[in-house]
Amino acid sequence: MSDHADNADKRIYGAIAAGLAAARRAPMLQPDCRCHFCEEAVAPGILFCNSDCRDDFQRLMNSRVRAGTF
Questions:
Q1: Do 37 and 54 touch, CB atoms closer than 8 A?
Q2: Where are the domains of the chain?
Q3: How far is the CA of 37 from the CAs of 6, 21, 24, 57, in angstroms?
Q4: Cα dihedral across residues 48, 49, 51, 52: positive or negative
Q5: pLDDT tens-digit readout, 19-42
Q6: Residue 42's CB: how many other CB atoms inside 10 A?
Q7: pTM (2 d.p.)
Q8: What's the rounded Cα separation, in Å, for the pair 64 and 13?
Q9: How many CB atoms are located within 10 Å of the residue 36 CB?
Q10: How far apart are alpha carbons 40 and 37 in whole angstroms?
């Protein structure tokens, strides 16, 4: 017989599994020799030209997710 703690555990693990599945489906950036924020040329295999562009890109993506436009 299951109790409230068991039922809560099932809901928690279900929510974690759903979140992991959504994260795995999220599109990933691919390096293309250009900064993904400012379009400046970068070395092969690099996504951003510096940490400022990386951070600005992340802020932009977070704001789009909050606004529901991404």
A1: yes
A2: 4-67
A3: 46, 27, 23, 6
A4: negative
A5: 899 888 877 889 999 999 999 999
A6: 19
A7: 0.61
A8: 28
A9: 18
A10: 8
